[in-house]
Amino acid sequence: MTESHLAVKMETRGLHFYYGSNHALKNINIVIKERQITALIGPSGCGKSTFLRTLNRLNELIPHTRIEGAVILDGEDIYQPGTDVVSLRQRVGMVFQRPNPFPKSIFENVAFGPKVLGLGTKREIEEKVEQSLKAAALWPEVSDRLHSNALSLTLGQQQRLCIARVLAVQPEVILMDEPCSALDPLATLKIEELMQDLKKNYTIVIVTHNMQQAARTSNWTGFFHLGEVLEYGPTETIFTHPKDPQTENYITGRYG
Amino acid sequence: MPVKEKIIEKIFFLIALSSITILALITFFIFEEGLPLILKIGPKAFLLGERWIPSKGSFGIFPMIASSFWVTFGALLLGIPLGLACTIFLAELIPPSIGILLRPAIQLLAAIPSVIYGFWGLIVLVPLIQNYLGGPGLSILAGSLVLSFMILPTIITISEDSLKSLPPSYKAGALALGATHWQTIWRVLIPAARSGIVASIILGMGRAIGETMAMIMILGNAVKMPTSFLDSARTLTTNIGIEMGYASGDHRQALFATGIVLFFIIMGLNTLAIFLSRRSVH
After folding, report:
1. Is B97 on the interface with A (CB under 8 A)?
2. Domain tally, chain B
3. Domain that holds residue B259
């Protein structure tokens, strides 16, 4: 397998996370390889989304939380004091479970990131918006109505808009938190195709409830259960020869 | 449906109807009392006339309309930045534990009787203005300052509600794109809550235009066209408040007619506020 020789983009070491006294993540050690799709699966409430949000420090928005251990991005611990959280979140972008475009125009949604980060002139931002919408496979559907409200799009289009919005800030890693759970099968398929395109340039981590989606799209899969990672490895291995009986029960649908 | 239920339903319907009936009666009454005078001297002479000399039969209320707007404008000039700063601070910047203490304090501002505001303005602000800025002290500036505090609870409570009712995903989405907290507040949250914030300002404006007691105490009550914020002035409401006690005949009718003008201004503002806050619901 060539996969083991791929560069490491992110890595967690002895990661624990607490909501108050609730021990939500227990000793997570995962390696996320560059330009690969890593899927996180597991039953509801097992800590997948919590884990995802530790990778861009978005969990800090919730009061009374505590973290232990390290999350390494390109060799640096993102939790060490003095880390620039704002630039971290630009490097590690996120697509949410429910499409969450701002109540602004389609153009303004994509231009928001480049504008707040001060990336370029008006002309350069316009180009960036077009590029990002093209990369998110949304351009043909919206090119003639860039200035209409983003909330007038279908949910599937809104989700691709949110992906375009993330691409516009030129991230290195894209976190996706059940990006298709609010979408119909056709819109889901479009997002999955898009992910294969994006994999050429970005490292993607996706949380999903959909076993087929994990099997179809990802290169690596981690199975979360009650805050622990029971099994982690190449997707093919996890789905064909799971070592842990609980993983096998879950992916075959006997438990979940 | 059993008969008993029907009777209960009817009783509640009548009670609900009574509040609308009272509003209709008040409206009818001020129109009945005030309209004849407006028709007698002509709407133009009444609304745009600059002389208010009841003993000589001159009933021009333009200086009072102008004063009402000057005082209100001054109050908004101070009250909007102050109110929005408080709102942002409360909704986004302070730990919830301090917010729990601050919020009731702001709501308490609304519970202070307006005569107390007037009293405070009279003994604190008026001498200060007189000593440091000149003029009579009893002035539009003093009135605007006091009103700007009086409208704070309206502006803060309603705009904080509209900020807090935004989906949390707006904030998370903006932060996840690498926006700073301040950029998130200023470029995403405030614009998204804009209609609620505008409605809060308009309601505050209605409160400012309608305020009477405190204004009688600190505006000086001179009937003249205002030319500076240090001038004394008389607003529409204070005109009614001061003179109703002894007015009769045309004079009395002219005060009711002043009430009609106020009625239209405040109805207009409230309708605008309702319209704007409805639009915010997507």
Report:
1. no
2. 1
3. 48-277
